[in-house]
Amino acid sequence: MAERTLSIIKPDAVSKGVIGKIVDRFESNDLRIAAMKKVQLSRAMAEQFYAIHRERPFFGELVGFMTSGPVVVMVLEGDNAVAKNRELMGATNPKEAAAGTIRADFAESIDANAVHGSDSAENAALEISQFFAEFEIL
Ligand code: GDP
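Above: the input record for the complex with guanosine-5'-diphosphate. Below: its predicted structure, written as tokens.
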């Protein structure tokens, strides 16, 4: 079933110059780029986006990292987009990520882990609406 998910290329991967290589992983695996933009998150935007993690000990670090430089935000569309994106991303900790995944290939640490991907279709819809209006998703 065609589905949408939100992907973010995080500041570490943007500053390393691997935007194109990461986008290629999606396009090569039948995930279409339905929307895309480069943005600098404000503190308030990052706090809202990660509100679910507000009580976690790493929340401050996470918000600090996500606002440390520009990110690329995308809507990916395709069959089982949420699960497929999570599979292409690999485990949260790049040291545990399977070989050939985005995090295994481009990430350094559990905080600077190259990409974000929605974890359910329901959260994807919420996250997409934080960044894109419907007319920007094509
Ligand atoms: P994800 O869905 O794989 O991105 O993982 P989670 O939803 O569990 O965590 C969200 C994000 O918080 C991760 O992608 C990491 O950037 C960050 N994070 C998770 N665990 C830790 C941690 O122990 N320390 C730090 N600094 N960041 C973490």
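Notes for the reader.
Residues 58, 61-62, 92, 110-111, 113, 116, 119 surround guanosine-5'-diphosphate (CB under 6 Å).
The radius of gyration is 14 Å.
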